[in-house]
Amino acid sequence: MVLQDNDQTKEPMGPYQWPARKDTAVIGKDHDRLDGLVKSTGAAKYTYDVNLKNQLIAVALGCPHSHVRIKSVDSTAAEEVDGVVHVEVLEQGKEGKEVRWAGELLVVVAAESEGAAREGVANIKIEYEMLDVFTADDDLEAAQRAKRTTKGGNRIETEQEPGDDDDEDEFYEKEFVRLFKDAEIVHEGEYGIDAITHCCLEPHGATAVWEGDKLVVYLSTQNVSGTDDQFAGALGVTANDVEVRCDYIGGGFGSKFAPDYWGIAAARIAKKTGRPVRLMLDRDQELRIGGSRPSGYVKVKVGADKTGKLSVWDSHHWGTGGSGRGAVSIGVVPYVMVPPNRRSIATNINTNNAPVRAWRAPNHPQGCALSQTVIDDVAGKLGKDSYDVFMANLANCTNGKAEVYADQMKVAARLMDWKAKWHPHGKGAVKGSVVEGLGMGLHTWGGAAHPSTCTLKIHPDGSVESFLGSQDLGSGTRTVCAQVLAETLGLKVTDVTVNLGSSKYPISGPSGGSTTVGGVSQSHRRSAQDGLQKLFVLVAAKLGAKASDLIATGGRIQTTDGNKSLSWKQACSLLGVTPLETTRSHERGKDGALSSSGVAGVQMAHVSVDKDTGVIRVNKFVAVQDQGLVINPKTCKSQISGAVIMGIAASIYEQRVNDPRTGLFLNSGSFDRDGYGLARLGDVGDIVVELYEPESERSRGVIGNGEPPAISPKTAISNAVANALGVRVPVVPMTPKRVLDALAKAAGKA
Questions:
Q1: Using one digit for the tens of pLDDT, what is the confidence trace for 201-218?
Q2: pTM (two decimals)
Q3: Given 299, 522, 615, 700, which residue has the most CB atoms within 10 angstroms?
């Protein structure tokens, strides 16, 4: 359905602003997700659930080796399998092609049933030339020997700058020697955070069907409005000939912005066969090639005063996002609290792992973990409370949020009962073999609203609906949009309908970077305000009042004194037979009263560690988060809790195990403790979320929060473990083996 806007060219009415906190009836109030019932009952249909008439099931063969060249492909036996309709060798599976990571899809078999497709795949014969393999991204020296490194950049900033006649390299070398000599305390350490892989509940994939020359694609995507062009370009058609649909998505987290070559393949095979084709990755493929978050490792030396405030930072970090991708950004090491004198050097490592994809706050979790563990170790070395040392380092904040962090730290400390529970590193009570500890971390993020266009229709029967080419990742986008409409029009949330999930609706941005809620709330507020003003003109004539004296509240339109009014349905009946339609947009970069960017958050963890087994348990986790104006506290808190749970999993359980000889991902087959481990309900402890919304932050408008709370859980938990043990487990995830190894090393037994 394409909605035409007849009103977009007219001057918006505005001014656009949110009502004061005291005047809200819907915004800022808890509301259940509008799609909660259909999801919980199984009625919601995800991309994986699409089952069209005469549909073929496609299964892909993934490369079983980490680095090879294709010598030959023979699909003859596969084509002869009963039920197989089509076999297609993908571009990267053709003779002579170099494959750089295991799992890369080479051949697709489309058949009448999944069983026949898998039998076809099993009958494909490929001859490979084996090539060198390297996956040891944590070993910088090994990477250098293997010639797998490139320069990743550097950044040097000092209070004393070189003169015009100085040799800069010589000046900085001498300056850093002096700075460390002048520091009251010097600390050196090595820290790391492993790569982790995407593992969306719903794997990547698509179902494609051609309706004549028009393509309809059911795609598991975070980018409904932006993927029709990508299909069109790959298939040689126009975007007008493509509709992308995604009513519901089972997770994305940054990995589903594009159709991917397997989505394109499904569309291409559907065209060749004249039948709908479903191609979804299986669980093993999802873990192997669905994307990963890059690793990061660092050697660092810092100098500080006796309060623990850092004055100088000198580090070299390295890591990788897999084949052809490098270390985390030089701009996030150190993170948030940046000493006035710093030198950061990065080295990129190229491995034979599948490439990186965006993963909830790209670069920030690594930068936080590689930086704020250092601050915590300085606190431990001084015998000071980490809280006090973090507070001292707020003077080095580079994002203008020092006062916000200080206030959030006080709130978090109260909720955690920090002062009562705190003890010097490694000096807490011992209960058998179990020790407890506290840790904290803080983070920042942008969250500027993405572009969004909303078409609003107010119908003569009083029904209201909006249309936008956005998507709901499970975070409650539908509900937020409905709340904005209900608040603006003086209705109940259940009185409005939000239509999204089609690229034929007005264009909206992709859901990534914590940009969605700011964008869609902007476009909905603008459309609703302007539509209401037009309705006011009709009502004013009916009531003999001024349009400027009317308000919408409680399902009625009335004068401000309440003496004259019409019900909402009576007011809408004045439209006659034609709906009132307004289309309004928000352009990214145009912050205003409705949305802005830049948030801060503080997190604290309380953990128990068994020194005999190395097992870590999270007892309590506190997250204090700023995100400007909160439209739906319930879904906002849920979003934060989900991010914390992901952080707990990444801190303790999620570990990609590669065979050092072959590079193969050994534990991709399941999510149990022997496979790719994820946190379960009993693993997450008590999660306490506090929405930080003083008027100073609320007045900045809506800012997204999908990314920020996923940044610092690893840091807070790592610091809590260090506080418990008195020993740093240097690399996240902190598996039982790594805990025991760290204890053995500290005891001189390793």
A1: 999 999 999 999 999 999
A2: 0.96
A3: 522
